[in-house]
Amino acid sequence: MDCDAVVVGGGFAGVTAARELASRGLSTILLEARDRLGGRTWLVDFAGRSVELGGTWIHWSQPHVWAEMTRYGLAIEEDVLTFDAGLLGSPPRRYPPDEAFAKVAGVFNRYATAADRSALPRPYDPLYDAAALEIDQLSMEDRLDELGISEADRVWVSGLLYSMAGSPLNESGLMPVLRWMALGGWGDMDRTFGGYRPVGGTPAILQAMLSDGRVDVRLSSPARAVEVSDDGVRVTTRSGETIAARLGVMAAPVNVWPTIEFSPALPPSHRNAGKEGMGKPHYDKVFIHVRGDIGRVFAELPAPEPLNYFLTEKYDGDTQIIVGTNQNPSLDISDKQQVAETIRRHVPEIDEVLDVRGHAWAADEYSRGGNTFHRPGQLRYLADLQKPLGRLAFAGADIATGYFGHIDGAIESGLRAARVLSVR
Questions:
Q1: Are strands 85-88 and 93-95 parallel, antiparallel or unpaired?
Q2: CA dihedral of residues 4, 253, 417, 1 (deg, nearest 10)
Q3: pLDDT, tens digit, for every residue of 173-213?
């Protein structure tokens, strides 16, 4: 054996699992495909400040990430999310922010009805009540049809739903919305899922975690094959290097599993999850530095509007940084001119687009999709995906019991993977 444990994937799930295994005295190698750690989080410089091209926000109601903040004495900073106008509808129209938010919230609260609360009495155990599996068959669009709301109300709320799902509403599950609502106490998701970030960005948490254990980190080492036997786990990288270990953790996103050769082959639940995908099938995050007296803006636009969600992140008077997400593949966020034309179509008051920086997560071969949003019927895979296959455990925000798709869920799953392996 080259080590006691090998972990594939250097996002929050993989780093957590590696730290936990190393802290128990196991020699641990962490293999990361990219030339950096963080997975679907990524801090970069843009327009004179640091920006997050992936996951960003945390909250004290998220127990696992907050435990890490407490453990290492890390601090948070608050984003000032105040706006002068809300852009809604298609084509987008400007509304006073209070009116826009109240309108969307009113329709959304009807969408996430109280009638479904009884199916999730224990938010951290979504399979506790069998009724959850029945609701999980419904798509977002199914629920909209059930409500029988006016077309105007449907347009208002569908922009918010589209920004959550990252794919057409008939392909996106209703249950993910209900699970997030239940985890947040059926309260204000805006502050639970946005507004507070760690000082120093997401790397501050990762660096603190890795400093807590002796982990052999190897970057630029994408896995090509994983072999599981009674004796241990062998991981072969694309460069041909083979790491033999007594235990293993697969912490790459579910969407990436089909690109890795597993021996023996993965069970049907794992193969189906990988084929269907759990990361948003098309998801770009982009920062746009603009000049113009446009005020602080916020937009949630319905499908298929390109750059359907954006907001002012940094305001400096006549210039500002707008952060947005795009789910329409017709928009190439690497094309500055195309991005400029799109944002100016939404906000014609912009005088000049100074710079653009983004990342197409669906086109990234090591994520093959954005953050998690499950399709209808995928909740039935959860229990199987969390079980180890012999000496190999699985981790990742995609398969978290709680805050799936978030840093908190990734940490939760890394803790679980290390725990189930520690008894072997």
A1: antiparallel
A2: -10
A3: 999 999 999 998 777 666 667 789 999 999 999 999 999 87
pLDDT tens for residues 35-75? 999 999 999 999 999 999 999 999 999 999 999 999 999 99
Alpha-carbon dihedral 407, 408, 412, 415, rounded to 10 degrees = 60
Instruction: Tell how many helices (H) and how many strands (E) occur in the chain.
Output: 13, 19
Angle between helices 97-111 and 151-165 (to 10 degrees): 80
Torsion of CA 340, 341, 344, 348, to 10 degrees: 140
Q: What global pTM score does this model have? A: 0.96
Residue 353's Cβ-side half-sphere holds a number of Cα atoms within 13 Å equal to: 20
Burial environment of residue 377 by CB neighbours within 10 A (0 to 12, 13 to 18, 19 or more): middle
Angle between helices 151-165 and 140-147 (to 10 degrees): 160
Determine the Cα–Cα distance for residues 4 and 197; give it in Å rounded to an integer.
Answer: 35
Closest CA to 336 of 355, 322, 313, 352: 355
How far apart are the C-alpha atoms of 314 and 316, rounded to whole Å? 7
Q: How far is CA 406 from CA 58, 193, 225, 401, in A?
A: 8, 9, 27, 11
